[in-house]
Prior knowledge:
Helix content is 77%, strand content 0%. The protein contains eight helices and no strands.
Amino acid sequence: MLWHITTFEISYRLRRMSTYVYFAIWFFMAFFSVSVRQFGPGSFGGKVFVNSPFTIATVLSTLSIFGLVVMAAIFGTAIYRDFEQETYQTFFTTPIKKRHYLGGRFIGSFLVTLLTFSGLVFGLIVGAQMPWADQARLMPVDLWFHIQPFLLFVVVNSFVAGALFFTVGALTRNIVAVYLQGVAMFSLYLLLIVLTTIARTR
Length: 202
């Protein structure tokens, strides 16, 4: 039953236009960060390649944090929509174990979230191949340099933040609370950046 609920959640998300919009957003953000000199980390100058491991890690970690609202939209609504569309009675009157229902919803949402954020990796790779990209500031594409930070930052951030969004959505059944949680987490991240910057300038 876990497998059926997981595949149902994935197929539902793949039929939604928002899934492809999220993928396109991350794809083009990463695409322009390496193909356009005045966009993203490549605009800061210096001798670091715009597709170096450091820069790729910076792009993936930063954009995954900016994607907290997207995570909230995917994870938070996985449970909430059953109550919004009044389909929860169908699930609760069938012999489905709670761990299968919740686990299937979470795993499906988690995999779809990773699918949308994979646009970052594809965008970085494709952007480095563009003829207008400054080849003097690009190094040969190494797939592992893209996969490693994706696993380290995107997968971990998606799992931890997604679990929080999913839990709040399941307990409160209030989508506003889920989005407010996403805004609060993002605001906390920005506050930590400001405090870190101030500490470094002293």
